[in-house]
From TrEMBL:
GO CC, alphabetical: peroxisome
Gene Ontology biological process terms, A to Z: regulation of gene expression
Domain C2H2-type: 170-192
Name by which UniProt lists this protein: C2H2-type domain-containing protein
Domain of life according to the entry: Eukaryota
Species of origin: Brassica carinata (Ethiopian mustard)
PROSITE patterns noted in UniProt: ZINC_FINGER_C2H2_1
UniProt xrefs under Pfam families: NYN
InterPro entries to which the protein is assigned, alphabetical: Marf1, NYN, Znf_C2H2_type
Length: 277
């Protein structure tokens, strides 16, 4: 049994690559490294709140489990821990990520799995170069190269026994979904945001979320998740709407309003003068 965890945030599907063919590329790369067929569990995970339903549907259509798990390294440890209960070492694990907190050799070195590490082009985590320590990963690959080298070599398909598994999981709320539309609706729901409030880090004094967007009333798990939020279309739209409400008057509007105010003051002065006389 082989487990693959694919970080969609740091290793997205490159432009021009059909998401439905990613699974075949991963399986082909594993076959080349291992030399034999094996059951493969592939889980694409990360903060999925801002990804299109079309992309997630195409990924899941190939039998890849899609999980909203925004807590980065902590999420990976939980996912791998759950999997290891059913599939203890020795086994093979492939991690596809460029996240520093995920690609941490000290964590993987403490297990007895055979680990493959895949990271994005030009973003090799420097933590892999730890000196005076045994290597944690059996082999390393570049994500874009793995896809390109195996795009036309998908004949050696591995065995997929995940057919009965749910297609989409929200790890924050422990909810499972068979339909992508329902999954996306859930990620945008008040229930989901309330659950997120319960897991985000908080200030020790005020107990307020450390990472928080006042425009969207959105709590973030860390700086990276807040960056994803601030770059999202939802946030940009709300920010623009909020800015319009607070926008200062243009010069023309200001002068017009100033003249109207001046005229009202003059009228009030005239009325007061008439009353007095």
């Amino acid at each position: 049994r082989t487990g693959v965890w694919w970080d969609l945030n740091t290793c997205p599907v490159p432009a021009g690559v059909d998401p439905r063919r990613v699974r075949g590329c991963i399986e082909s790369a594993l076959y080349k490294e291992m030399g034999y067929r094996t059951q493969v569990h592939i889980e694409a995970f990360g903060n999925l709140e801002y990804m299109s339903s079309a992309l997630l549907e195409e990924i899941s259509s190939s039998g890849i489990l899609v999980s909203h798990a925004p807590c980065r390294g902590n999420s990976l440890r939980c996912l791998l821990g759950e999997w290891s209960e059913d599939y203890p070492p020795p086994a093979t694990v492939m991690l596809i990520s460029g996240c520093y907190t995920m690609v941490n050799p000290s964590f993987f070195r403490s297990t007895r799995y055979n680990f493959f590490c895949v990271y994005p082009k030009d973003c090799r985590p420097v933590i892999l170069d730890t000196e005076n320590e045994p290597k944690a990963f059996f082999t390393e690959s570049v994500w874009e190269n793995l896809l390109n080298d195996n795009m036309n070599n998908n004949a050696c398909e591995m065995m997929n026994d995940d057919d009965d598994d749910p297609l989409f999981i929200c790890e924050t709320c422990s909810d499972i979904f068979k339909i992508c539309g329902e999954f996306i609706t859930h990620l945008n729901s008040e229930q989901h945001i309330n659950e997120l409030f319960g897991i985000v880090p908080r200030d020790s004094d005020s107990y307020e979320p450390i990472h928080f967007c006042q425009v969207c009333n959105y709590p973030g798990y860390d700086d990276y998740n807040m960056l994803l939020h601030n770059q999202s279309e939802q946030h940009i739209r709300k920010l623009a709407a909020s800015s319009r409400k607070r926008a200062p008057l243009s010069d023309g509007s200001f002068q017009s309003n100033k003249m109207q105010s001046f005229q009202r003051v003059k009228q009030e002065e005239v009325s007061s003068f008439r009353l007095l006389h």
